[in-house]
Structure formats: C-alpha cells, structure tokens
C-alpha cells in the first residue's frame, strides 16, 4: 500500500477528547448539561450498534443521553407525538431520530417535525437551507467528518476537483455543499446511478468521495493516481464490513484513503457530539 491511511478512529478520539473539554467548560459556566435524545424505532441490528456507540460517546464527553426505544409497529403519529413533546421539553437540547425508519413511517415527515434548533443531524429543511446559503447552524455529521479527514492530508482544497459519488440527503448532497463552501473552494461534480461515462469523471477527481452503498464499487481503474479517496460506504458482505471502495487495489494508486471500518464512521459520532453542544449553547444563550 502506498497511500496514507486516514485514521478516522484516531482523529475521532482526539475530537471527542477536545469536545469533552468544551462540554466541561460550558457546563461549569452555565450549570447546563447538554442533553441529547436519540429515538430508535424498530430492531435494525446495525442501528442498535450505532445508537449504543452514540450513547457511549455522549457519556464519555459529559453529554447526557436518553434513548427512546420504540417498537417496529410504532405509527407515524405516535412518533410525531413523541417528537412534539421533546421539541418543547426545555431539558432536551438535541433530538436525533435514527434512520432507517420502518416502512409505515414517512421519513421526511418525521425529520421535518424536529425543532430546527434541536436538529443535531442537520436534516431539517431550515438547516439544509442555511447550509446551502453558506451560514450553517449545524454541520451535517458525516460530511463534516469527511472534510476533517481530507484536511488531515490536504489543508487547502481550493480549486481542486472533488467528485462525489451519490446524491443522498444524508451524505452526497450536503457533502457537495461543504466542498463548494467558501474556504473549501473545491470544484464539485456529483455523480449518481444515471451518470454517463462515470469512470471518465471519477478519474478526474483530486478528491473522490464514495457514498453509494455498493460494496467495492470503486475500482482502481476509476481513480486518478494521487487522489484522496474517502469511503463513506458501510456494507456487510459475508458478515464482514466493507466500504464502497475496493480498498487494496485503490490504496496502491491513491495518495490517501480511509479504511472501513475505522474511517468515516467514527467521525460521524464525534461530530454529533459537537452538534449536541452547539444545540445546548443555542438554547441556553437565546433565553
Ligand atoms: N439519524 C441518523 N441516522 C443515520 C445516520 C446519521 O448520521 N443520522 N448515519 C448512518 C448510521 N450512523 C449513524 O447513525 C453511523 C454508521 C456507522 C458508524 C461507525 O462508526 N461505523 C464503524 C463500524 C461500526 C460497525 O461495526 O458497524 C466504522 O465505520 O468504523 C457510525 C454511525 C445511518 N443512519
Ligand atoms: Mg431511507
């Protein structure tokens, strides 16, 4: 392997440690402990792991966390009622609804119902709008983690060509927005399942972000020599976690690459803590 390995696990641990200090200062100055509520609906095994990891990270950083576990039969109205209560609960600063939701629940209706001031995922249309306008209230957790990993090897992305594979609301779209924002100043191309001549485009990428949810999709032929490759994919193949990037051959060509596991995933959780603190600040200082 010739590429630098971008160690998300290590970087996330450092960020969480920094956050712990910031939370401590905030709490000693205000008497307020940031409080994140996570809502988990159903039994999705991967979601159970992520939610447990979020709780552990909160506890270690001094953020209070409460988990609401709802049955997979929960109706949309029951979930909306719970969120309405949490929205007005002054003791709750951040609300996160773990995705995916069971099929009887319309995801967008639920995400729209979270108070934008408590929306630590930055999924609410108001927060997406603020990000589009370049004045974000919360940074979306996974794309922010990708930016921090890129900064480890490339502090100046101005004028670089970033290609984002995937157009999801959680990663692909906000990723493109962070890369074009002032300060990052990359030139962004977003590709998706209907993109023609995909390889021709991905081979132009100085920075390639893979977020399409297809195991080992990005092959060495798709990567420009020296590119920075960020793998957002988390796919389970024969009980093993693999990313969207065919890691071993691509790591011979890229200048830097994230592993799966231990790359982008842990960064998502570190940024969630940061948003929980931001939410607590917003609600404490606007009173
Ligand atoms: N409300 C949200 N739902 C979901 C989000 C999100 O950001 N907000 N993202 C994903 C899941 N996710 C966080 O919720 C998440 C996924 C993976 C990891 C992570 O640390 N992965 C580890 C591997 C862990 C494992 O063994 O499975 C890694 O990559 O090293 C953290 C968070 C969808 N839902
Ligand atoms: Mg979905």
UniProtKB/TrEMBL annotation:
Transmembrane helix in keyword set: no
- Gene Ontology molecular-function annotations: methenyltetrahydrofolate cyclohydrolase activity; methylenetetrahydrofolate dehydrogenase (NADP+) activity
The record's Pfam families line, in alphabetical order, gives: THF_DHG_CYH (PF00763), THF_DHG_CYH_C (PF02882)
One GO BP annotation is:
purine nucleotide biosynthetic process
The highest taxon in the source lineage is Bacteria
Tell me where in this chain the Tetrahydrofolate dehydrogenase/cyclohydrolase NAD(P)-binding domain is found. Answer: 140-282
Which keywords does this chain's UniProt record carry?
Amino-acid biosynthesis, Histidine biosynthesis, Hydrolase, Methionine biosynthesis, Multifunctional enzyme, NADP, One-carbon metabolism, Oxidoreductase, Purine biosynthesis
Q: Which residue range or ranges hold the Tetrahydrofolate dehydrogenase/cyclohydrolase catalytic domain?
A: 6-121
Query: Which catalysed reactions does the entry list for this protein?
Result: (6R)-5,10-methenyltetrahydrofolate + H2O = (6R)-10-formyltetrahydrofolate + H(+); (6R)-5,10-methylene-5,6,7,8-tetrahydrofolate + NADP(+) = (6R)-5,10-methenyltetrahydrofolate + NADPH
In what pathway does it function?
One-carbon metabolism; tetrahydrofolate interconversion
Which GO CC terms are listed, alphabetically? cytosol
Task: Write out the residues that bind NADP(+).
Answer: 166-168, 234
**EC?**
1.5.1.5, 3.5.4.9
Query: Quaternary structure?
Result: Homodimer.
Family of this protein = Belongs to the tetrahydrofolate dehydrogenase/cyclohydrolase family.
Q: What does this protein do?
A: Catalyzes the oxidation of 5,10-methylenetetrahydrofolate to 5,10-methenyltetrahydrofolate and then the hydrolysis of 5,10-methenyltetrahydrofolate to 10-formyltetrahydrofolate.
What protein name is recorded for this chain?
Bifunctional protein FolD
**Originating species:** Rubinisphaera italica
């Amino acid at each position: 392997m010739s590429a630098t390995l971008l160690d998300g696990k290590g970087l996330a641990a450092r960020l969480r440690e920094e956050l712990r200090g910031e939370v401590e200062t905030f709490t000693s100055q205000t008497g307020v402990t940031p409080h994140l509520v996570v809502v988990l609906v159903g039994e999705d095994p991967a979601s159970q792991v992520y939610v447990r990891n979020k709780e552990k990270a909160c506890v270690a950083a001094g953020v209070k966390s409460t988990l609401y576990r709802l049955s997979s039969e929960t109706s949309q109205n029951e979930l909306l009622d719970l969120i309405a209560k949490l929205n007005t609960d002054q003791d709750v600063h951040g609300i996160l609804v773990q995705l995916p939701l069971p099929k009887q629940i319309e995801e967008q209706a639920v995400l729209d119902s979270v108070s934008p001031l408590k929306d630590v995922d930055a999924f609410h249309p108001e927060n997406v709008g603020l990000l589009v306008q370049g004045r974000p209230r919360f940074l979306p957790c996974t794309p922010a983690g990708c930016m921090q990993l890129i900064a480890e090897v490339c502090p100046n992305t101005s004028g670089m060509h970033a290609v984002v594979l995937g157009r999801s609301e959680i990663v692909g779209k906000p990723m493109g927005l962070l890369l074009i924002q002032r300060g990052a100043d990359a030139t962004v191309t977003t590709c998706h399942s209907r993109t023609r001549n995909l390889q021709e485009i991905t081979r132009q990428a100085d920075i390639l972000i893979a977020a399409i949810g297809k195991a080992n999709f990005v092959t060495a032929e798709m990567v420009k020599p020296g590119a920075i490759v960020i793998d957002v994919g988390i796919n389970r193949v024969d009980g093993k976690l693999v990313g969207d990037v065919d890691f071993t051959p691509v790591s011979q060509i890229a200048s830097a690459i994230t592993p799966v596991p231990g790359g982008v995933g842990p960064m998502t959780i570190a940024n969630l803590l940061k948003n929980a603190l931001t939410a607590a600040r917003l609600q404490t200082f606007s009173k």
